């Protein structure tokens, strides 16, 4: 296989999320939320949004790569019991939204369009790539009082490096892949690194990360926290990358952080 083809092949895999079936535990949120298809004009793609709860005090929830708008259901349920409603969405090529490929800039564009149509939001909460997207959206003008990121990735090059090593390709492919994306999307990939966005954000941000996260190293969370002007760090043990979303101590911490002035 030529190098050019190999890079294209890697790029295709990198931008194609896996669509998982909605697990039973998410059925209630799926059933009880008001769902609406909206267009994100900047990227000319349609996404499906979920409005859960009745309150005018709205919180935005952003899932991670290969996630869904109902994935943060446990957090959403607790927020509703505490007087909020949540808006979440299936990012492009995720869940019920159309398409097969997407990239982080499309997550960010979706967030900013959702703010126009459903905002204002008091808080934004993002998991994994959703955490990186929330920080970038705040940097780009998403107006919230506070943000919470859970198991967030950090440096884009690190993410590409790890991806290339999983594919068992030579290290040099990592740079080639980055250059391919920069050329295709006319964007500098490193500009999307979470720590860079963190340096420009003045609102309070709670960074939650598990010490044993096998998918996104805890060093990502620590590094983001070091670069925040007004950051708080909460580390957990033994919850990994996804279980952390349903953990009672984590949810308690989120509610405490939201409620402190």
UniProtKB/TrEMBL annotation:
Claim: Transferase is one of the keywords in the record: no
Record's keyword annotation contains Hydrolase: yes
UniProt keyword annotations, A-Z: Hydrolase
Transmembrane spans: none
Entries under Pfam families matching the protein: Abhydrolase_1, Abhydrolase_4
InterPro entries: AB_hydrolase_1, AB_hydrolase_fold, Pept_S33_TAP-like_C
Molecular function GO terms recorded: hydrolase activity
Taxonomy, superkingdom: Bacteria
Organism of derivation: Flavobacterium ginsengiterrae
Domain spans labelled AB hydrolase-1: 59-152
Residues annotated as domain Peptidase S33 tripeptidyl aminopeptidase-like C-terminal: 198-257
Annotated PANTHER family: ALPHA/BETA HYDROLASE DOMAIN-CONTAINING PROTEIN, XAA-PRO DIPEPTIDYL-PEPTIDASE-RELATED
Protein name per UniProt: Alpha/beta hydrolase
């Amino acid at each position: 296989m030529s190098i050019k083809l190999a890079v294209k092949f890697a790029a295709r895999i990198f931008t194609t999320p896996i669509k998982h079936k909605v697990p039973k535990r998410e059925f209630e949120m799926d059933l009880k939320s008001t769902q609406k298809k909206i267009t994100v004009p900047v990227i000319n793609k349609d996404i499906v949004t979920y409005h859960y709860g009745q309150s005018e005090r709205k919180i935005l929830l952003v899932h991670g790569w290969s996630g869904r708008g109902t994935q943060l259901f446990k957090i959403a349920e607790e927020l509703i019991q505490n007087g909020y409603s949540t808006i979440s969405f299936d990012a492009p090529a995720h869940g019920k939204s159309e398409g097969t490929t997407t990239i982080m800039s499309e997550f960010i564009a979706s967030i900013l369009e959702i703010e126009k149509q459903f905002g204002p939001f008091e808080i934004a909460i993002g998991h994994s790539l959703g955490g990186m997207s929330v920080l970038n959206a705040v940097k780009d003008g998403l107006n919230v009082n506070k943000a919470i990121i859970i198991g967030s990735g950090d440096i884009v090059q690190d993410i590409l490096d790890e991806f290339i090593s999983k594919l068992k390709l030579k290290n040099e492919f990592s740079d080639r892949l980055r250059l391919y994306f920069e050329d295709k999307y006319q964007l500098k990939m490193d500009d999307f690194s979470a720590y860079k966005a963190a340096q420009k954000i003045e609102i309070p941000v709670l960074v939650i990360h598990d010490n044993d996260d096998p998918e996104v190293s805890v060093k990502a969370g620590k590094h983001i926290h070091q670069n925040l002007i007004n950051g708080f760090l909460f580390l957990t043990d033994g919850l990994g990358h996804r279980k952390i979303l349903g953990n009672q101590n984590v949810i308690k911490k989120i509610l405490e952080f939201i409620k402190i002035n």
